[in-house]
Amino acid sequence: MMASSYSAKDEDGHITVSGPGGGTLRNKKPENTAFKQQRLPAWQPILTAGTVLPAFFIIGLIFIPIGIGLYVTSNNIKEFEIDYTGDDTSSPCYNCAKNFSWNNTKSCTCTIPFQLDQPYESNVFMYYGLSNFYQNHRRYVKSRDDSQLNGNIDSLKKPSKECEPYASIDNKPIAPCGAIANSMFNDTLKLFYNDPNGTSVPIPLTSTGIAWWTDKHVKFRNPVGTNSNLTAVFQGTVKPVNWHRPVYELDTDPENNGFINEDFIVWMRTAALPTFRKLYRIIQKKNNMAPTLPRGNYTLVVDYNYPVRSFEGRKRMILSTISWMGGKNPFLGIAYITVGSVCFFLGVVLLVIHHKYGNRNNSANISN
Amino acid sequence: MARHSEEDAGMAKAPPAARQRKKKPKENKTRTVHANILHDCAKGDENPNRHYANNKIKTTKYTVLSFLPKNLFEQFHRFANVYFVFIALLNFVPVVNAFQPELALAPVVFILSVTAIKDLWEDYRRHRSDKEINHMDCLVYSRAERRYVEKYWKEVRVGDFIRLRCNEILPADVLLLSSSDPDRLCHIETATLDGETNLKQRQVVRSFYDLDCEFDPLKYNSIIECEKPNNDLNRFRGYIIHRSGRRDALYKENLLLRGCTIRNTEEAVGIVIYAGHETKAMLNNNGPRYKRSKLERQMNVDVFWCVIILLVMCLFAAVGHGLWMFQYGDNRPVFDVLSPEGTNLSPIMSAIYLFLTMIIVFQVLIPISLFVSIEIVKICQVYFIHQDMDLYDEETDSHLQCRALNITEDLGQMQYIFSDKTGTLTENKMVFRRCTVAGVEYSHDANARRLAMYQEMDSEEEECMSHGGTLPRRDSVTSHQSARVVLRSQSTKSHRRTGSRAEAKRASILSKHTAFSSPMEKDITPDPKLLDKVNDCSSQMDFMRFHSQPMSQLPSDLSDIIDFFIALTICNTVVVSSPNQPRHKVRMRFELKSPVKTIEDFIKRFTPSRLTSGSNSSSSSSLITNRSSNKGCSSLLSSPSAESTLTKLHEEQPSGGLEQAFSPIPPSYDGKTSWNLDEGELRYEAESPDEAALVYAARAYKCSLVGRLPDQVIVELPHLGKLSFELLHTLGFDSTRKRMSVVVRHPLTDQITVYTKGADSVIMDLIKPPDTGNSKGKRQKKIVCRTQHYLNLYAANGLRTLCIAKKILSKEEYACWLQRHLAAETAIQGREELLFESALQLETNLHLLGATGIEDRLQDGVPETIASLRKAGLQIWVLTGDKQETAVNIAYACKLLDPEEELLTLNADSQEACALLLEESLHYIQAKFLCSPSGPTTKSFNTNFSPFDIYSSSSPSSQSTPFLVHRLGLVIDGRTLAYALDKSLEDKFLAVARSCRSVLCCRSTPLQKSMVVKLVRNKLKVMTLAIGDGANDVSMIQVADVGVGISGQEGMQAVMASDFALPRFRYLQKLLLVHGHWCYSRLANMILYFFYKNAMFVALIFWYQFYCGFSGSAMIDQWYLIFFNLMFSAFPQLITGTLDKDVSAETLQQLPQLYVNGQNSEEYKPYMFWMNMIDAFYQSLVCFFIPYFAYADSDVDLFTWGTPITTLALFTILLHLGTETKTWTWMNWMSIAFSIALFFTVALCYNASCPACYSPSNPYWTMQRLLQEPLFYLLCFITPIAALLPRFFYRACQGTLFPSPVQLGRQLDKLPADIRRNILSLSRVKVGSPLCPKLPFLSLAKASPKSYYKKDGRSVSGSKQGPLLQTDEAKRSPLQPTDSDMHLSDLYTPAPSEVDTLPYTKDNPALSGELQTSSAADSEHLNKTIEPSDVNLSSCVTSTPLPAQADSVQLSMPPDGASQCVRYTRNSEERLKSEHAVSSAHRTEPPTERPLQAASFSLN
Questions:
Q1: Domain ranges, residue A163
Q2: Smallest CA–CA separation between B150 and chain A, in Å?
Q3: Which of B1183, B1228, B1296 to mutate to test the interface with A (most CBs of A within 10 A)?
Q4: What is the C-alpha separation between B1289 and B1280, in angstroms, rounded?
Q5: Beta-bridge partner residues of B1370
Q6: Which one, of B447, B683, B511, lies nearest residue B585 by Cα?
Q7: pTM as predicted
Q8: Which GO biological process entries does UniProt record here (chain A) (predicted)?
Q9: B947 touches chain A (CB under 8 A)
Q10: Using alpha carbons only, how large is chain B's radius of gyration in Å?
Q11: Contacts of A273 in chain B (CB under 8 A)
Q12: For a Cys staple, B33 with which of B15, B224, B845, B948, CB 3.0–4.6 Å?
């Protein structure tokens, strides 16, 4: 728009003697290029029943097998879930749940027996699941200091504003600060296999390798390396209010202690939806012969520390194998089958339409 | 720079140097200009001119310092920007913030800075051009050096003396004080100001006129008082006060305007009056206009709806959040984080805060980039329109100009076109066609043939050599002429070999560079009869002069003839220039003498002795002035041209003394160089094309104008040689008088003669009533009578008529008149009025000489353009200043009026009569067309009646023309229009006019034109387009929604006022039908898409609120959220918005019906916004819930879940665009690929860049991890397909079941070219043609009989909508057959043509015979058939073709409809006239009794 005002003004003083003696004729003729004349070669699809029809059938034909494949895959995944919230009076954890709050320091233990009907062949992943826990709440999600978790000393001493009001207590910085860390899941789950011969064999649970590799090695770092004394490093900080132990006592393994404790890292990855599960431990497959978890009776021993009753949450323990497409979830398979069928059906509808009405255009056009 | 310092030094050295200042009381009304050199002692603040702007121009808006604040301030005038800034700032409030505050600012800053950079760049360009202009050189007088020194333009000040040389451009508005021209004239070319290429004369201020020696600035000591700077180019008033106290008036003739070019003048000196920004040129230069297009208005409504949706969503979320909070009671869960201060917010408070937060989160719903994108797309559209070769006119080397950049899409929505006639529909190339002298008509058949030849030449097919041979030669005398014709045709041929003919034409035009001088206008073939008479007459006169017989003995018819041609030659303001030095006027000076300016002068000159003297050369010879001889008469006498040497010698003898006295240089000198070369090539610089045409016509009869000076006109007559007419006065043309006159002294009779030329209506009233007593009087009466007859005939043939008259003044009469005239001239107050009255006094009792008919040829392709625009559903009204008959005939010629349709002519001379007429017309229309709704009425003229409409169910036609449009033409004249536009009648007028297919307003003033446009625009709520070429169209152009200027020959005012400037009328077709359609559909689709896209994206977050406790959380990373619109999804839609073509240009032009699409806003209807919104919500549901369920109860984290959703949304949005894209060029593919690549690149980089930044999402390695998961790909595959399934399915069904006309057009595009052509030609012939076979293509009509029926019903009900009509109808209906029979039968006759034939029906035989030919070929064919080289060319060339279409009429005549209809019988006009005292609504009936001349003449 300015351009034309410019050119208008241009006329005012411009010396263009295009007169008889002017000599050079200014030729303003536009160039005859496909682009400038808007004649670029183009594919012009016209959406009619006839033209679109094959697409629908092809989509249908592709989707339905995929869906079936996904569904089968998902069904092959074994999953076991047990709710140990303790809402029910019948629940073994009822007592623990009833009078438990964040202030309790003494832990309460409850034992839940369960039975696996099928052997779990491959590696088994042990999750804890929470329901109704809004880890995705806007203020909650923000309430962390990534810089502190990355091992920045300054942030350790002076946590970011985002952590308020969980940044400091009595002017002592909280490490790790923020509401997410403060509300960290702190139940301890142990699994025992009740041998048919009556003994209770503890199942070895691997607590490493449950977090993203990049989280463990890049995103989360202890303030000064991993080998130095964490107690000294975290000197001058206080533990989060709800925690029972300071951060440097999360684990005895120095590779899994402090900010790089994998349970902590997993917790810090805030869940997307209010019902979620988080990887707790991995049960490694021992050898090729025996199943990781054979059929039989098991006992889950819970150190009940985490109160969920205040927000009517649920706590679960999940045992699951995984496949190439993740955990057990038949939805995607069903979705593919459904969409594929719908496409196929619509394809048939279009075929009918095309047969009944579409002909007239074509025949009319062709007959000319 | 060197010069700078030198100058500065010079100024310093000479203390009384060229800059001086003196205190001067500030005046309000006038400006006082002193010469700078008088005041050089006082530097700085003493200069009296210091208050005036200097000549430095600065068109930039900003300076380095002011850029930022000023630009921001301007940008914040746009409400959207303020809104977005507000939202961004809201993020800085911790309680409500949703995003990182700095990040939230990014989009706004981005948008603002893009605009700012654009502004900056434009400003810089302006700055550069300013600098260039400011640093041009000119000569300014320096007192210090006592000579003119070179200075930059910017250093010129008011009060400086500047010297200008030939071909220099004026740096400022300068008062002309001296000129090297012996006549004290200075010629300027004002092409840069108003586009007029003819030379204009400017005169030295009168008091400096008689200066003998060269003007010496040092002696100048006058003071100039003049107007304050204003922008009126045609006005300048003031006076100059000399030291002696004498005052002299200053006129616009004394002022040279900045930007003009000096021509034909060696040197001129002037004093600067206005400089820099105060010059008239700069004051006239206002920037482009801003209009808001209809689409944008519509869009703004939907933006408003978006705001509402936004608020509803926010409110919903806020309430939800409140409830969510409430359910926990006092028992706060761990995840409900306290405010930073640790306080616990109540649910209500947090709901309120959340409301604000949600506004931030959902801000994307109001598309921030929409406004910027629309601007970008429009600029691209303008670029493409500019680049269109079809809109480029080779002849004038000009292409379409878009002056308003933001209403391109309005072009696609026009409903009414208001067109000027002259210069718009016609070429404004006035060609002399025929004339009548002394009551005898000379039909100029040969000339007509010649013109027909040009027409053929225009239709490229013509063999070039053939016209060289067949071109009628002039009679023997003009042998050189025909030689030239051959020459020209040869050159044409050679050009054609290399390029197009138009190229050759352009070359020839440019080489000559004179307006109104194309060969067609110049080479007039004389009528042999008349030529003989002229020869005869002049030889007699020569004989008589030789024998000193009084001229009065000449037979009066012969003397009339010679007077007629003399009048043609001299009664104008044409300037003659010679060909070799194009802008050097030919000087044929016999003497030097100013026009009569004072009484003394008059007395001195018109001494009785001289007046009575019989010597024809006495007046000249006795007036030798010293000056002219002193001057040496550098460019003086002509010598006789070669072929007339004999006669010349013969004739020169009596005046030989004179010539010798005036030619110190041998005559041959000048003759060889400039004059004798080619007498025929003298160039005439005329201000109007009519003048040029008449002068060229006279030249064809050997009465050539060979020189014009302010005081005399030199005419060369056959046998008589050159005669010098002393020019006493020129009373210029004005539109109120409608005539011009010159007062001359006839060199042969020495009588003071007034020659008047003007519109016939005016002149005929001024003719001296012949005194019937004697035979002379009777003869005179007969002449007048006959002339009137021929005038009517000319008008009927569409010619422009002019009457030529003369009057001989006695010396006493003249003296008497002169006195008053001089008084008027010198009056300062009301000078114009006095001059006007003085002219009125002179122009009375005229003696009629004859009349001329000038043809204003239709531009190429006008009928075709009008026909196709009309097919496109556009109503075309022609508003012209021309007389009724001419206008009607042009209208027929350009197919605006159809011979088959009835014509309602409204001529009333009083308000009551007008009211009555309108009433009657209304009744007539109702009675005729509404009485049988099932009959022919429903087949009212349907502009879109074509197979395409028949089987398109959406029946666009009935919507586009909600009011029934009948096959009626309305003709109304200016006076009646004035009454009709009265408040009380305008509704009625509109009711009548809108039901007519074409409306023609004749004799309308510019104001009326704009009133009509305004009326239609405001009352009918339609989109209007006004097109015109002249200053009289400016008001109309400004009022209309879209103003189009024709950059023709009549200057630039219309172009300056317009939004689009076209070189030719026919380009309107492509501009509207193709570019308008494209622009509209592109932009409409883009806007809809924008709304969809943003709604879809925002809705994703909205659904998420249900799963995050309405906490305002977003699973989409804020970076994606903010840049999604700005970067990831921005390019494809811009490309599609710029390049998408729904239908190809060819099909759009061949099927104008597709234009209705835009008129009805079918691409963007209000419901479509909601459909898109619903679709957006559906798609977002799919895009949300498929990942939701896929990831339900998994260990996925917030942003690892959100990223796939973003990706899916992007894919879905792009795929959606894909389904809406109609043409896929590589640019589309590229843009989509680019978008996707950009997203992944950015995501990967972003996710790999900083492990601890980007709180809170901290998406380190998220994308990388996702890309390893099969689930991600599976989601990406299914979701977009599931989301788009309904839309895709709907589109497919629609494409088959109920395709829109546009879709059909698109299908047509895909067909092979020959089949397509076939179908198109069939669609044209189809209606009303008996020859049309039952085509399978057409038989489809039965497929949608319901819609057809519906259409009918709707149109009928629509026709009853007009409240006025309905009541009238109700009133009348009981009376119906009987009363109206009685009443109306007087007025109207039944219409045999009441059929639904297309205007092209008459061409059917030709067309159907050649179905294979394309429409372009058809139209050419049409031209040929219409203009056969028949004997009776006179009627064919100019007026409408005679149709022969009886069979088609009969065929389509609805039998029962006619019988039901009220019967009207033939009228008796006398009765009507006596009853209503109006020349009433009157019907011409062209088809069978074609002689419409008779019909229309009875009106007058």
A1: 65-331
A2: 18
A3: B1296
A4: 14
A5: none
A6: B683
A7: 0.74
A8: phospholipid translocation
A9: no
A10: 38
A11: 1107, 1188, 1191-1193, 1196, 1201
A12: B224
Q: Rounded to an integer, what distance in angstroms lies between the CA atom of residue A177 and that of residue A155? A: 10
- Which H or E run contains B750? none
Question: Would A343 be classed as within a structural domain?
Answer: no
Q: What is the pLDDT along chain A (368 residues), one digit of tens a residue?
A: 333 333 333 333 333 333 333 333 456 788 888 888 888 888 888 888 888 899 999 999 999 999 999 999 999 999 999 999 888 888 888 888 877 777 766 778 889 999 999 899 888 999 999 999 999 998 899 888 988 998 888 888 888 888 888 888 888 999 899 999 999 998 899 999 998 888 888 999 998 899 999 999 899 988 875 566 888 888 888 999 888 888 888 888 888 888 889 999 999 999 999 999 999 999 998 877 788 888 889 999 998 888 888 888 899 999 999 888 888 899 999 999 999 999 999 999 999 998 888 765 543 443 33
Q: Does B335 touch chain A (CB under 8 A)?
A: yes
Q: How confident is the model at residue B467 (pLDDT cuts 50, 70, 90)?
A: very low
The alpha helices in B578-721, defined as continuous H runs, are 599-605, 608-612, 618-621, 626-631, 645-662, 667-670, 689-700
Residue A53 lies in a domain: no
CA atoms within 13 A on the CB side of B1053: 13
Residue A276 touches chain B, beta carbons under 8 Å: yes
Q: Which tokens belong to B948?
A: 């395409």
Which residue is closest to A313 within chain B, CA to CA?
B333
Task: For residue A19, tell me if it sits in a domain.
Answer: no
Strand partners, B441: B436
Comparing C-alpha atoms, which of B984, B986, B1043, B997 is closest to residue B1020?
B986
Ramachandran assignment for B1270, one of left (phi > 0), alpha (psi -120 to 50 degrees), beta (any other): alpha
Q: Is A70 on the interface with B (CB under 8 A)?
A: yes
Q: Tell whether A24 lies on the interface with B, counting CB pairs under 8 A.
A: no
Contact B1083, B297 (CB under 8 A): no
Q: Is B1248 on the interface with A (CB under 8 A)?
A: no
Higher pLDDT, B604 or A10: B604
- Residue A345: closest CA among chain B residues belongs to which residue? B1289
Would A367 be classed as within a structural domain? no
| CA atoms of B1076 and B408, how far apart (whole Å) | 7
pLDDT bucket at B1201, cuts 50 / 70 / 90: very high
B769 secondary structure, DSSP code: P
Quickly count: other Cβ atoms within 10 Å of residue B725's Cβ: 22
CA-to-CA separations, B1269 to A364, B797, B1261, B1264, in angstroms, rounded:
51, 83, 13, 9
Residue B552 phi, psi (nearest 5): -65, -15
Among B1196, B1227, B1256, the residue with its CB nearest the CB of A272 is: B1196
Say whether A52 and B1288 touch across the interface (CB within 8 A): yes
> What six digits make up the tokens of B241?
């006060």
Number of domains observed in the structure of chain A: 1
- Bridge partners, residue A108, by sequence: A304
- What's the CA gap between A84 and B494, in Å, rounded? 100
Chain A closest CA to B173's CA: distance in Å? 12
Burial of B219 (0-12, 13-18, 19+ CB in 10 A): exposed
Q: Is B245 in the A-facing interface, judged by CB distances under 8 Å?
A: no
**Better-predicted residue by pLDDT, B1408 or B1099:** B1099
Residues ≥6 apart with Cβ < 8 Å to B770: B776, B777, B778, B780, B781, B784
Residues of B in contact with A134 (CB under 8 A): 333, 335-336, 1108-1109, 1111
Report ipTM for this prediction.
Answer: 0.92
Q: Nearest chain A Cα to B328, which residue? A: A311
Name every chain A residue with its beta carbon within 8 A of the beta carbon of B394.
Answer: 29
